[in-house]
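Usage example:
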Amino acid sequence: MSKILSVYTNKITKKFGSFTAVDNVDLEVYQGEIFGFLGANGAGKSTMIRMLCGLLTPSAGEAKVGGYDVYKESELIKKSIGYMSQKFSLYNDLTVAENIDFYGGVYSLNKRNIQEKKGEIAVELDLDRQMNRLTKDIPVGLKQKLALACAMLHDPGIIFLDEPTSGVDPKVRKDFWNIIYQLSEQGKTVFVTTHFMDEAEYCHRLSIMHQGKIIALDSPQNLKKKNEENSINDVFIKLIRSQIDADYQ
Amino acid sequence: MQIINKTRVFAIAKKEFFHIIHDTRSLIIVFLLPLIQLIMFGYALNTEIKNINLGISDNAKTEQSRALIKSFMGSDLYHVYSISNNSDDIHHAFLQKKVNAVLLISHDMRNLQLIIDGSDPNSASIIKNYISQTLSSGQSIIPIDIRTQLLFNPELKSSYFFVPGLIALILVMISALLTSISITREKENGTLEQLLISPLLPLEFILGKLLPYIFISMTIGFLILICGLLLFDVVFLGSAIAFTILSFVYVCTALSFGLMISTVSQTQMQAMLIALIFTMMPTLMLSGFMLPLESMPWLIRIISWIVPAKYFLKIARGLMIKGNNLTELLEPMLFLLGFTILLLSIAWNKFAKQMKELK
Amino acid sequence: MIKIESVSKSFGDILANDNISLIIEESQIVGLIGPDGAGKSTLMRQLCSLISPDLGHIEIDGLDTVKSQREVRTLVGYMPQRFSLYPDLTVEQNILFFAELFDVPIKERKDKLEKLYKFSNLKAFSKRQAGKLSGGMKQKLALSCNLIHTPKYLFLDEPTFGVDPVSRQEFWELIFQLRDEGITVFVSTPYLDEASVFDKLALIFNGRLIAYQQPSAILAAFPYQIFVLQSTHYDYFAQMANVVYLHLFNKNINIAFSTEPSEEQWQEWLDKRIILTYEKKKTTLEDVFLLQSKHSVEL
Ligand SMILES: Nc1ncnc2c1ncn2[C@@H]1O[C@H](COP(=O)(O)OP(=O)(O)OP(=O)(O)O)[C@@H](O)[C@H]1O
Ligand SMILES: [Mg+2]
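Running the assembly step on the lines above writes:
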């Protein structure tokens, strides 16, 4: 596999007032990779993702997504990425079909295209009989999968998932990760944050973030080996704990 | 500048429309509220006086004076009582609210004296008007010089004044409210973020949000117009087409105002409060709806220039009562058009800034 | 002690709780496990007297939750699934508001606050507005607000939603400490590895209680041996009659048979390259969960 860069950042920084949420982060993520973006609460993961999606302007540094510059080419980035936020992103008071229609329209797909996609989603998520139900009435896990499907309507090459599996049950989580694998096999880059450490084990590469900085970055296997732990959960706890202890002194 | 994409504008408009029709309860409120307002304000503001208790003291007792009394008795406006010329009696009648007015006819018929209960100056002046009208129209026999001449509203119906005012008030309130919460709702729910990472342009968003609400506000406009005509028995002398065009412009002004509010407020609550305060107060006080602008201090008169309802009031009164045509109402229309463009571009600008960087 | 007796509750034509009975002893941590929409939150809300059962009844310390609602509410604390804070108040203002609301003695407040800050790591952010916190920080703040007072019974609905592993560890330490002080905790969580150290687990599927035991007993009761196969022939196994459990996960198949295959059978599969490897797997709570949930979609 020749390595095509999907995400590239060089000393990217975001400040809110005097507080630095993302602090000089360098990152390279390649096409087709499932990249796990881990970190403690408030480490700056969502902030980083929002900068990469063009929702926030960086305070300093360089960043490219899909080869496009986040400062100058945010319009082009928007067309080539999908994003699922930590907050729920569908309209609860619209039906499933109306949500799909709407996001299809926003990405200016034509009618036939939207119809096709709707069919695909219905089959894939077994949603056939739910199409005309209000989104607020369908199970949480299904909603989450639908949100992903809507974020993928325009067939983006890179997809950012901010805690997509928070609040869904273990079965749905597995289903969700099966979808992520499929996306990666189709050559799509998946940039995902999670607090479930078993999910972290499924990623190709991981980074662990603490107070705006990346403190570790490698494949799960290497991370475990280097830190002499049996699971990513233990690696995570070990690394973050030592950082917190260091901060106290 | 990038070109607006029709699909995206309609995607927003359609979605907005679905929001509205799925929420039946709010939909009913949106249509019912204006009617309730119309009826409540309507009857509260109705200053028309139906029963004037008129005491007449006929000291002449001539054929002429009797004819005069007959003309009062012939109208259903008055209940006529006979009353003695004794000032104590008259005083008593007023205190006991037996009469609203007393007409004294001197024994030589030369002198007519009208005494009116002034405790409610508003009704007093109306009563005065009614009586002097009856006097002048019924009895040319009596050489009284009446100068009051009423144009357009010969019956002096107060509904002629308040129905156009109510249309102006209700339309601006509802319209601004609708658009102002429609964007803040997306902010609160987090769905706005999803739109911001899409290729959607700020102007597309603004236009898409505008479209469905134009439709709704116009429907409401027609609804209150028709109900106003039926309930308060007002004339409508102008053309329906002119009304459609002109209220379209007015509605756009109000909706744009709502959009602008939603760019400065973070929550639906804020947006609602701002929308209500900034539409209701100026429309009630500064548009000439309740209080005539001519008698206001100059500063207020200048401020009134930026109150859209002032112009719509001109339009609505002109259309309904005077039967003005479009060209005669061009000036207020241009003002409204100007406001719309101004407000829309402010909303667009502010929103484009927010789209660049989410707060 | 909490006594739940034949409780049923439905919403429209959905039966959220179907004849549930269980007893929760004092000073225990009991986990409530089940898929989305299984009726976990409904049960919790009935326990803290927010809604009343259609059938059956619940007693907390001998008090009926419907008849003695007020008394029950002084005994219990409840943190709903999506607890909202005041976004315009600071972290500390939020916590202190709840301290005042629940009348926590001023002397105790400082001590508690310190304890809570230790688990949440929010001390450095105590002056920040809650609306400006990250998702997980908000959740930790919500937890802190709910733990500032200590009722005898604590009901927590997915308390660790979005909370990072380090804080989660600290949080459970805090909860175990509370248990040792005599508090009873009833908690739902999607983190099954964490649930495996609770005193007891209640498994709810489709509104019905299907197990109420110690985690080890639940695992021991799992009737099958699970194998992990490295294989892409999902369909081949899917149509076998004696397969009772089958789950595909990234080119690995988790499978269990009603009658285990013989050595020869395994060898045959290996030879035909239907499978590349196979190994026995220790049963986890996740397997129990997956075996039970047939509601959601297979990919
Ligand atoms: N608009 C803002 N103003 C001020 N501070 C902010 C703002 N948005 C985020 N922050 C701060 O930036 C830091 C990083 O937040 P971020 O949401 O990126 O964390 P995160 O890693 O995604 O955490 P979590 O795992 O809890 O979701 C936090 O301390 C947060 O309080
Ligand atoms: Mg986050």
